[in-house]
Amino acid sequence: MEMTLQVNGMTCGHCEKAVKGALGELEGIQGVDVDLASGKVDVVYDDTLVTKNEMKEAIEEQGYDVVA
Ligand code: 9UX
């Protein structure tokens, strides 16, 4: 499965790393691509292992805002 999350508040490369790292620690995440300029985070994942809500919470724990 693949989805795009809109994440607000990422402005530098460290933000990108924080978000990638947080998602990468979740089981079932197969790929993460962050576009800093737009705030779009493309995630490739196994939907039997991880939910959108878990991804959202992991990103929010890092201090960023997930829109929808
Ligand atoms: Mo960069 Mo991101 O100094 O929260 S780590 S803006």
TrEMBL record:
Chief place of localization: cytoplasm
Signal peptide: none
One Pfam family it belongs to: HMA
Keyword flag rRNA processing: no
Keyword vocabulary terms for this entry: Chaperone, Copper, Cytoplasm, Metal-binding
Domain of life: Bacteria
Locations listed in the record: Cytoplasm
Domain HMA: residue ranges: 1-67
Database matches in NCBIfam families: chaper_CopZ_Bs, copper ion binding protein
Protein name: Copper chaperone CopZ
Native organism: Terribacillus saccharophilus
